Structures are given as C-alpha cells and as structure tokens.
Amino acid sequence: MRQVNGVPRRLTISSALLIPALLLGVLAVVVSAAAAAAIESHTVTSFGRGLWWATSLITTVGFVGEPPETTTGAVISALLMVLGFLLMAMVSASLAALFIREEQRPFQAEESSTEKEILEALARLEERLAAIESRMPPP
Fold this sequence. Notes:
The protein has 139 residues and is mainly α. It has a domain at 17-99: Helix Hairpins (Orthogonal Bundle). The protein has helices spanning 18-39, 47-58, 71-135; strands spanning 2-4, 7-9. A two-stranded antiparallel sheet has the order 1-2. α1 (18-39) packs across α2 and α1 packs antiparallel against α3 (71-135). It starts with a strand and ends with a helix.
C-alpha cells in the first residue's frame, strides 16, 4: 500500500476503468467465439454458436452444451470465466460507489463549508497574534 502523510492509502479502482474493461470483455467474447469455433469444431459448430458459448461463460452462466474437448478450449473457457467474475465485480463496485458518492455529497458540502470557516478563524487568530507580538518589546 502507498502511504500518504504516514497513513496507508488504499489503491482504488476508478469507475473510469469500467468502460475500457467492458470493451475488453466484448473483445474477449468475440475473439473467444472465433477461437472456439476454430478449435472446438465438435462442441462449437459456428461463429454464432461460439458467440453464444463465450457469452454464457463470461456472464457466469456456465457451459451451454458440452464442455470443451481440447486443452486450448478449456484454457479459453477458464479465462472467460475469470474475466466474467472480474467484470461482474467491477460493475458492482462501480454502481455501489456511485450510490455512496451521491449519498455523501451533502455531508461533503457541509464539511467543506466547515473547513472554510475554520481556516478563516485561523487567519483572524494569526492576524491578532501578529498584532499582539508587534506591541511586545523585543527580548
């Protein structure tokens, strides 16, 4: 973990990464569909069936039809399943963060105005302290 002012800071996943991650997921489905249609000719008979097969794996539904017969097909299947879990987690986390951010907005505005008041009071105190120090004789 990185530290800021001696305090550990968590690494956060930005929701700006959500769109590229979803696009990567779509690309993975299309590439996997083509690969499955080429490699798993007995299990996946066409590119259209490959799209259905890849979509079912990435959405964590599981195999549609029979499992792959080749090692390459099994590796592609495993990668799609893991990518599906990761994408589902990212989407869920982004939605949760959106709801929390909306809920926290009024508190953040109040906190910001309080901080501004505190800084203004400190500035006034500094001015008064400087005026008091200017009246004192030097040591």
